Amino acid sequence: MTGRTGLGAQRVTRRTGDRLVLDGLTLTLRPGETVGLIGPNGSGKSTLLRLLAGVLAPSGGVVTLDGRPLGELGRRTVARRVAVVEQHAHTQTELTVRDVVALGRVPHRRAWTAATAADGRAVTEALDRTGLTDRADQSWHTLSGGERQRTQIARALAQEPRELLFDEPTNHLDIQHQLDLLDLVASLPVTTLVALHDLNLAAMYCDRLLVLAGGLAVAEGTPGEVLTADLIKRVYGVSAEVTAADGHPVIRFLRRGAQGPARGASPGRPGSGGPRAAHVGGSERDR
């Protein structure tokens, strides 16, 4: 059930042409938690993030913010509450790090009005929180991949959101920068939904996981409940050993016995009791 406060989705469906990309998905984000969104390519992760951000409209069902349908709220209202960090950000314009972060204040200002003292404070605090104060006057184009991701997080924080959505923020980063970035994400005082490919990182940093496959939510629960060898086999089509360390699952993938996901299978509906799981199907792309 969608809560009265915060961001959520109730039985949302999304079609692209004749393809069913999301099928009756329900999600409630609890205040202050970090939720990991995992699943194979084409499972609907990016589509769900865009629905929750109001960038796409559902074909059926409803996305709500504080109990009100997102479609009833203006784009500026949503942008003040919900910030999105995409996989990649590019610009041909010569911008400094401070310029990029200041873009997060656009939802809080009327068109063509000058920045206020509150805008300046928000930008300064976002730079400080992301460790970019000493880079504020550096050109965006001279930054490393990890620094660009941190700049995008700072831009999102400057919006002063209560909900923050990440689409594969660790892609193309080396291990050190992946850990640094997720340490930062986990420390943020906001509700966070983050799409991840790396199951071990999801287990380390997320309070709760939602597994998508073929447009369906096939499992939901804590990392320890969700990340089992059985579910990994059914969802990803690979064999794995799952152990525990420091209170979270650790996954080791096995070469022998691994096989690709079955084609043409239809995911079952989640059952009751414990983490929900179902067989995987569909080959819809979520991009």
Automatic annotation (TrEMBL):
Q: Where is the signal peptide?
A: none
Q: Name one Pfam family in it.
A: ABC_tran
Q: Which UniProt keywords apply?
A: ATP-binding, Nucleotide-binding, Transport
Q: Where is the composition biased (Low complexity)?
A: 257-269
| Xref: InterPro entries | AAA+_ATPase, ABC_transporter-like_ATP-bd, P-loop_NTPase
Q: Which residues form the ABC transporter domain?
A: 7-239
Q: Where is this region: Disordered?
A: 257-287
A molecular function GO annotation: ATP binding
The cross-references to SMART domains, in alphabetical order and at most eight, read: AAA
Q: Which PANTHER family match?
A: ABC TRANSPORTER ATP-BINDING PROTEIN (PTHR42794:SF2), HEMIN IMPORT ATP-BINDING PROTEIN HMUV (PTHR42794)
Instruction: Give the protein name, as stated in the record.
Output: Histidinol phosphatase
What is the source species? Streptomyces yokosukanensis
